[in-house]
Structure formats: structure tokens, C-alpha cells
């Protein structure tokens, strides 16, 4: 396990091999897990709860959660330990953007970015869809708990966050020019570091996804009607 250590087994110490797009890419075994969840949601909406539950059981939820806790959410710290780039001083509170929370803008950010993480590129699922699915399914198999350990792994990697590319406490604005869609792993992995401190490129230098993915927003009305 890597928590509390100065190096991460997933990240490694060969800086030249690190991703320049995100704090820590998902491992290969995790690549199809969100697609299985999407299949599960579609089964539930079509009235096949049994198949839905079966597919949810296929997902390696606990393994994903463990990866998130031990690697993903603390990847920025491990990168900075190796890079040794100093932390800029936060600017005075009076000089910061008066609007810190991106909540009012987040759906616009998600739609602009095609519900894909602008760092690692993974698919993101609508927050409203996940909340409603949990309510309608009403099963202990899939829950958003109060702690990381009690939250299903899929939520850790697909829950969308409107992330400040340049940190708010350093003067970053809460607007569409400084907010990008991020998975929870990249968002927590970035922590309060700047992209320069982490050795990753500005996500605005890459175009948003154009794969027509909508985060299952189009399924909301059907799910509500169940």
C-alpha cells in the first residue's frame, strides 16, 4: 500500500514515463468497468432488474475503491515529492474570486467537455443520474456512502467534478475559462497543487471529447418514470 509512503507503486519513480495529461492514469483492468455499469443502467431502465444486478456484481467495485484510496486520490502528492517543485503562496482572501463553488457552472462544463475527464479522458456519469439510479434501484449493491470505503468504486471514477485548472486559492477564476470536467480521481489527485507542480499539461491545450457521450443524461427522464 502507498498511503503514507514517499513513492507510489502505480506511479513509479521514472518521471519520464509519467503521464503528461493526468496525475495517474487508470490501470488497464479498470478500462471497461464504467461500460459494464452503463450496461447495468440500461438493463434496469428496460425493466430487467435481475440482469442489472448481475452486471453490477461483475464490476470490481471494492478493487476500484482500494485503487482510488491507495493510489488515485494521493497521486499528486507522490508526483510532487519526486518533482520537488515549491508550492506557491496562496493569495490574500480579499483578492480571490468571490465565487468559489463551481456548482452553478458545472453542468455547462460537463456538457462542453462531452462528459469526459479532460485529464485522463475517462467517461463521466451525470451526478443526477447516479443519485436517481441509487434511489430507484434501492440496493445495497450500489450506494454512495458517507466514506470512501462505503462508496461504490464506479462512483469514485465516474462522478464528474468541475475542476479549477489553476487553483482558486492562488487566484484561479471560477469561470468556464478555468473549469474543466474531471473524474474524482484526477480531481483529488491534483489536490491543491498546480499543474506545473505535478508536471502535467494544461487540459485546455487538448480539445474536449467529441464522441457524443452525454453522461447518460438522456436516460434521466426514462429513469424518473420507472
Question: SSE layout and pairings?
Answer:
Layout: H1 33-45, H2 49-58, H3 61-70, H4 75-83, H5 106-112, H6 127-137, H7 153-158, E1 160-164, E2 179-183, H8 184-190, H9 195-198, H10 220-225
Antiparallel strand pairs: 1-2
Helix pairs in contact: 1-2
Description:
- 37% of the residues lie in helices and 4% in strands.
- The protein is mainly α.
- Strands 1-2 form a two-stranded antiparallel ribbon.
- The protein is globular.
- Helix 1 packs antiparallel against helix 2.
- The chain starts with 32 loop residues before the first helix and ends with a helix.
- The mean pLDDT is 96.
Short description:
The chain has 226 residues and is mostly helical. It has ten helices and two strands.
What portion of the residues fall into strands of 2 or more residues? Answer: under 5%
What share of residues is helical? Answer: 25-40%
Summarize the biggest pleated sheet: 2 strands, antiparallel
Number of strands: 2
Secondary structure category: mainly alpha
Q: Main sheet: which strands, in order across?
A: 1-2
Mean pLDDT level: 96
Distance between the termini: 42 Å
Approximate shape: globular
Helix and strand pattern? HHHHHHHEEHHH
Count helical runs. 10
Low-confidence runs (pLDDT<50, min 5 residues)?
none
Rg result: 18 Å
